[in-house]
Amino acid sequence: MDVAESITLHPAGLPGEAAALARARIAAVAQDASALVEAVRIRLAAAPGRVLAQVNAEVDGRRVRVQLAARGIGEAADRLADGLRHRIRTVSASWRPRPWPSGDRAVGVPATGSERIVRVKSPSLVWCSPDAAVRTLDAMDYDVHLFTDPATETDAVVQRIGPTGYRLARTLPAAPPQRPATPLTLSPHPAPPLTDRQAAARLTAAELPYLFFADPVTRRGRLLYRRLDGDLGLVVPAG
Questions:
Q1: Which of 39, 106, 173, 203 has a beta carbon 3.0–4.6 Å from 211's, enabling a disulfide?
Q2: Which CATH code, of 3.40.50.300, 3.30.2010.10, 3.30.505.50, 3.40.190.10, is assigned to 117-235?
Q3: pLDDT tens digits for range 186-233
Q4: Is 82 left (phi over 0), alpha (psi -120 to 50) or beta?
Q5: Would you kindly state where each structural domain of the chain is located, as residue ranges?
């Protein structure tokens, strides 16, 4: 099968030629890669003055993602291709922190927007070390990543705080990880107990890109984030 034909494409509010351009750019990257690139999915959406774009793929069995906002479809297609090419090189070589700040989001995420939560994701959180969580954060192009730390059996997040630094925050206070392979700063504060509505109000008032908080009843970690379209998304652990 032709590489382009194997790509799943979801264009929303964009003409067919725009979708074809993005498909062709991504197909060329996948075809030329030295690694096996499969399960490629492209999402495109028109927004006021911007194009929102995302590509997900598996590179030698490892999931990668690029997400960005661009001023037009040509810029979006080129930067998606460049981002995927970089992710392929990154996961195929020894791990290093991705460039900071990432050039993938030159247009940027809106600093403010509505308090409306338009999407709720309920994944089964991966139990992994903070080091493994950091590698997932970089490979998946996340700003922050929610996981469960088996050393403390608490939900936690890792986030980028500078060119080579990462911060670890947990729902409950605990000792720092022993001999982490990546430079980690431990947040001294537990995740604040908030309802979803309280979290949305706090994130919006402080113009935060995301907020890690704890369910007041279950004490499970939850992650609220500002989407590229200006609305809010919420990650809630399954179970």
A1: 203
A2: 3.30.505.50
A3: 998 999 999 999 999 999 999 999 999 999 999 999 999 999 888 999
A4: alpha
A5: 3-92, 117-235
